[in-house]
Amino acid sequence: MSGPGPRRAVRQEANYGDAAARPSHRYPAHVLRTVSWLLRSGAYVFVGLDAFTGPGPGAGARAWAVVAYAIGGLALLLWGLTDTFGERPAGQTPRIQGLFAVAAVACGYASAFAHTGALVAISLMIIMDLGTESALPVGWTVAGCTVVAIETGVLVARGSDGLALGYPMLVVMVLIASHNRRAYRVRAEQSAALLAQTELLRAEQHRVAVLDERTRIAREIHDVLAHSLGALSIQIQAAGALLTDHQDIDRAVTVLAEARRLTADGLTETRRAVHALRADIAPLDEELATAADTHRQRHGGAVRLRVEGEPTPLTPDQALPLFRTAQEALTNAAKHAPAQPVEVTLTYGDDHVSLTVDNPLALPDPGRTGDRPEFATVDGGYGLTGMRERLLLLGGTLDAGVRDGCWRVRAEVPR
């Protein structure tokens, strides 16, 4: 039952990881990058057409415009190549940052002359990228140098006051927009990382839940089989004694029929453990009363059940370990102290529920050495060990040993 499960859990966790790693954009990243560069290229061509096809400025101004336009084109080209093949964005590479700064300043200065104002668009594109990708001091420094270059160009070209105020305001607005874009991108990356962690955590929680459910099933089947096989062993020993010591075939057949019924009950309990682990069991006092009646019918020993305190409903995780502890204790009593009375006490306290099973020690057998038989303890018997481990998971305890001439098993779970 434990073979293919882990592989399925691992594959499911891998699927969650793949889903978390996939980008959450509506369109693939390479499509958005292509559209962005088409727009930048179109803007660069439009700036060139506007600056050099209309009425031209003076010779000196045209020379500045050509140089600035060429530097801007080189900056955009390296920007695109780095964006496509580089390991990090162009705005984070120091050499390209320097080229960007030169291009922004040159285009800003040239834009102050007549008929070349469109060159400021190249400066704005560069400032937008630096404000988004680079450190804040770099973006502010390049923007400040561009404003100084624009104002210098206005003074040299004797431009209008509107130009002297309008272009710097555009630079500041683009820089602020780039910071907003930067903040949005950081939030998007953080959201994507958080989503990936959430998906991985969900996959891990599912895997842990599957393993926990398997552990519960394995523990429940172990408890059922330990109880059923223990009772079956007693019946088989009794049948063997009847056949070898007393030659009583009729009673031996009756005992074997009881053993066969125990086997069927064990199979039924095992199926219940597999198929109905999540179903609520009956109230604990009713389950204990049924177990006491069954013990009396099978082994002939008197069982007294006492319930102290105000009974309150318990969860299956609380009630089932106590019930299995009672079954294990009754089986041990039938095995080690047959026909001896057993007292079962269920106590509902304010902060815990306890179960105590007491039975007198068996009378010594004259044919055996020693005063009394050996009992399975918490450290020696697998049944009680399993009960103890099960209760420890709930913060409970289990004690077993000789107390006042009786063998006592006491289990306790917190409320």
Number of strands: 5
Q: What structural class do helix, strand and pairing data support?
A: alpha+beta
* Sequence stretches where pLDDT stays below 50 over 5 or more residues: 1-25, 366-382
Order of strands side by side in the largest beta sheet? Answer: 1-2-3-5-4
Q: Terminal Cα separation, in Å?
A: 33 Å
Mean pLDDT: 78
Largest beta sheet, briefly?
5 strands, mixed
Number of helices, where a helix is a run of at least 4 consecutive DSSP H or I residues: 11
% residues in beta strands? 5-15%
Radius of gyration based on Cα positions:
43 Å
Percent helix range: 55-70%
Order of SSEs, N→C?
HHHHHHHHHEHEEHEE
Q: What would you call the shape?
A: rod-shaped
Commentary on this structure:
The protein has 415 residues and is α+β, with helices and mostly antiparallel strands. It is 68% helix and 9% strand. The chain is built from 11 helices and 5 strands. A 5-stranded mixed β-sheet has the order 1-2-3-5-4. It is rod-shaped and about 130 Å long.
